[in-house]
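During data preparation, we tokenized the protein backbone, and the record follows.
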Amino acid sequence: MRFRDRIEAGELLGEELARRYGKREDVIVLALPRGGVPVGYHVAQAMNAPLDVFIVRKLGVPGHEELAMGAIASGGVRVLNDDVLRHVAVPRQAIEEVAAREQRELVRREKSYRGDRPPLDVRGKTVVIVDDGLATGSTMRAAVRALRKMEPREIVVAVPVAAPSTCEEFRAEADDIVCLHTPEPFQAVGLWYEDFSQTTDSEVHNLLGRANLGAPHA
């Protein structure tokens, strides 16, 4: 099946998560911007849980930026990919320069999306981390590894659609994984949405604002 849009996907994902977890008081929903935010908003509504963004920035190898040597994430967390760094000699100074540049962009985005609100404290909480789908899962993987360092009680990865192999891989990364649909062949996340238009910064601001004010489900 295909989802009509991210709203429908979030509503259906929220129903499944509410069925599994009920309305537990320790749940926090974190969404990966930008496409994960509309999905996460409706998940948070269904679970009666607070919503925040969790921003991940890839650290690309200098000269080969598509190759990730690590990532940084909300909360001042850095994760390095030891496998890549064993095969590619990157001086410590270069790693620090890339990390500093990406940290500036992460801070800019957090300021844009969250304003003056502090990030939610995930320590000891059940964190449901949401995106609109998983293809290779590289960004979500970095997010999960970063979150681990922030000491939540439990990490649940939740997406409407995922490549079957990627969904299976996350069983070893997260405490629970919820993939509503794992079609084969998968090809791309966008194929499983009738409307996969880009989520705008304005939409992100609006949804986070509504969630923060406890606005009712749209």
Q: What stands out?
A: Residues 92-114 form the longest helix (23 residues).
